[in-house]
Amino acid sequence: MKKADPNPHANRNIMIITYAILVMFLGMIGCFVYFLQAESEDVINNSYNARLDSFSDRIARGQILSSDGQVLAETQTGEDGAETRVYPFGTLFAHVVGHSTKGKTGLESLGNFYLLSSHVNLFEQVINEISDRKNPGDNIVTTLDVGLQQMAYAALGDRKGAVVALEPDTGKILAMVSKPDYDPNPAALDAAWAGLVSGENTQGQLLNRATQGLYPPGSVFKIVTALEAIQEYPDNYLDYLFDCTGVLHVGDYSIKCYHSTAHGSQNLAQAFANSCNGAFANLGLNLDRDRMYTLAGQLLFNSDLPLSMAYSKSSYKMTGESGQWEILQTSIGQGTTQVSPMHIAMITSSIANGGTLMKPYVLDHVESAAGEEVKKFLPEAYGSLMTADEAGKLNELMTLVVTEGTGSALRDASYQAAGKTGSAEFETGKETHAWFTGYAPAEDPQIVVTVIVEEGGSGGSTAAPIARQMFDQYLLR
């Protein structure tokens, strides 16, 4: 009987299937390795992972420390073995450190995995197991500066608002204060909880206004309008002239400068320094609205922020189809534009850092209970929000705000600061929100500070002095 000839097509099909299975297998191995190296901690530390809390059965939650080692949160164990989470500074770090008894917020949530991991030596672990004692959890050391935090807290006083301080060339969060606040210590929080979460409570003590509060930016948004002018007219943006009478009339619409102040003849630099609403509203009518929408996106409006803490997205809606009133309002930071203090601080930080935004971060490193470093968090660049040349031009404008304009609260400082004030209308009949954002020294920025005081009135008279105290605390100590 004659043998059938081998089918070359069958052999080729077998090889194809074999290689396909091999590629799929290698792909699965690659995904598994990537998960272990890059994603596993995020999944384990997810707030919806109920299994993570089971770690507390054998590990005592670690400490949260300031940049100089002061205890911001710790677990104390009573004689009966009961554990209590204690926050020695009380309300001072309430929002950024958070709490861990009514759910987890702030750093208690962000660092949950590390706080419930233990890297004590093997001998100690064995002894603890034999003695039926919990192993001490790792400690997280933050970038937070206690002195700056205390200064921001005291300067804001009993007013509602927020203060954020960043290191522009690294992204380190140096201070973050939000008011009104609450006491995160368990006994105080338990007693106040029903009132804090009541539908009748309008104070929002649990809201971290620094990252989750959304406000009209007012005149600090003129940074964005000025940047658009610089991009459209890079060689002659300073040639823009406007004669301010205190009120700009456009058809049936009127735009007033703060207190209807008549600034007279203003070029763009003078209008920026004096925060002239008329000049910037009129400028907005002459800019490309579609390009400005694109610029807003590049500055992270309507976008996710490179921030690991809970935050609210900023919004910007003006397009080429917008009507005259929306253009006038948006160009001066009013209308529908909404932004968080942290977002304004990030834009300011990119200007201070030559156009490059460093991702803000608050975890510096993780260390074992014995003080040995377990994990180090390094500065990471997000990317360029603008060119170095554009950042330099904005730096010149923001320096003029201090030397000649509305930032006079910083004028006599021993260092040269740069910034922008703002007064944002939000509800008819109520005082404006007061803004300031800036950095110092202007020639070599080391710290960025953004301040908002709700219903604080003038940014120059209310918010800028708070920033001045922060700069003094950081630069002159």
Please give a structural write-up.
- The protein is α+β, with helices and mostly antiparallel strands.
- Helix content is 36%, strand content 18%.
- It has 16 helices and 19 strands.
- Helix 6 runs antiparallel to helix 16 (459-475).
- The radius of gyration is 27 Å and the shape is globular.
- The mean pLDDT is 92.
Relevant terms:
477 residues, alpha+beta, 6-stranded mixed β-sheet, 16 helices, 36% helix
- What topology, given as strand order, has the largest sheet? 4-3-2-6-14-15
Distance between the termini: 101 Å
Proportion of helical residues:
25-40%
What oligomeric arrangement do these chains adopt?
Answer: single chain
Question: Sheet bearing the most strands, described?
Answer: 6 strands, mixed
Overall strand count = 19
Q: What is the average per-residue confidence, as pLDDT, rounded to a whole number? A: 92
Look at the helices and sheets and give the structural class.
Answer: alpha+beta
Whole-angstrom Rg: 27 Å
Number of helical stretches of at least 4 residues: 16
3D shape: globular
Strand-residue proportion: 15-25%
Report low-confidence residues grouped into runs of 5 or more: none
